[in-house]
Amino acid sequence: MKPLLLIALSLTAVLAAAPPAVGERPPAFTLTNLDGVSKQLGPGPVVLIVLRGFPGYQCPMCNRQVSEFVRSGTEFARAGVRVVMVYPGPPAEVQTKAKEFVSDKNLPQHFELLVDPDYTFTKAYSLRWDAPNETAYPATFIVDKNGKITFAKVSRTHGGRTTAAEVLAALPR
């Protein structure tokens, strides 16, 4: 194979594995909530937050981020936005650990935590952090009422998360 063709094929594979970007429609998914009810993204506007979930412990950075969003719950409600959080983890314990994760948080009515027990969602969004003690790269997307992404931020570390203020400022007006 010629070197330039090999580079082009490698670049194509990398681009195909990129998380959804601004202007794109996010991949469709069906996950379950904490009551075991199947849920989809549904109509926007939606803030979609991908947490690290349960990589063997409850992530303190995820706890801080979700708590901050919960404190800003009234502002998200005023903006007419639903907040959907995805909690990935090993299938045997993800439901139990997700319930434990929100047990000390009073999620507003327009917030929902969904579990990703097989990493199906995480892989479809190219966010699988496949390393020891990892599950997913933390990410935030805003999906507008037309079903297109208007904001996307992926952190390749534990930090660098999107803040509630940053998301509120980026919401479509």
In short, what is this structure?
With 173 residues, the chain is an alpha/beta fold. The protein has one domain: 3-Layer(aba) Sandwich (Glutaredoxin), CATH 3.40.30.10.
Give an overview in words:
The protein is of the alpha/beta class and 173 residues long. The chain has a single domain (19-170), classed as Glutaredoxin. It is 31% helix and 20% strand. It has a seven-stranded mixed beta sheet with strand order 2-1-5-4-3-6-7. A hairpin with a 4-residue loop joins strand 1 (31-33) and strand 2 (38-39). The longest helix is centred in the N-terminal third of the chain and has 14 residues, at 3-16. It is globular, with a radius of gyration of 16 Å.
Please give the structural blueprint.
Blueprint lengths: L2 H14 L14 E3 L4 E2 L6 E5 L9 H12 L1 H6 L3 E7 L5 H9 L8 E6 L3 H5 L14 E5 L5 E6 L9 H7 L3
Observed structural traits:
Glutaredoxin; alpha/beta
The tally of structural domains comes to 1
Helix % is: 25-40%
Question: What gap, in angstroms, lies between the N and C termini?
Answer: 50 Å
Count of helical stretches: 6
Based on the structure given, which CATH architecture is correct? Answer: 3-Layer(aba) Sandwich
Beta fraction:
15-25%
- CATH domain fold name: Glutaredoxin
- Mean pLDDT, nearest integer? 89
**Alpha-beta classification:** alpha/beta
Assign the CATH class: Alpha Beta
